[in-house]
Amino acid sequence: MRWENLTERSEHGRAEPALFGADAVTIRTFDTPEFRGITFHEVRSRSVLNRVPGASRMPFEWTVNPYRGCTHACVYCFARKTHSYLDLDTGLGFDTQIVVKVNAPEVLRRQLASPRWQGEHVAMGTNVDCYQRAEGRYRLMPGIISALTEHANPFSVLTKGTLILRDLDLLVRAAEVTDVGISVSVGFLDDGLWRTVEPGTPAPERRLDVVRTLGEHGIGCGVLMAPVIPFLSDHPDQLRATVRAIAAAGATSVTPLTLHLRPGAREWFMAWLARHHPHLVRRYERLYAAGAYAPTWYQRRITRQVHELAQEYGIGPTRAGLARRIRPAAPDEPEQVEEPTQLTLM
Question: pLDDT (tens digit, 9 = 90+) per residue, 3-20?
Answer without folding.
Answer: 454 444 433 334 344 444
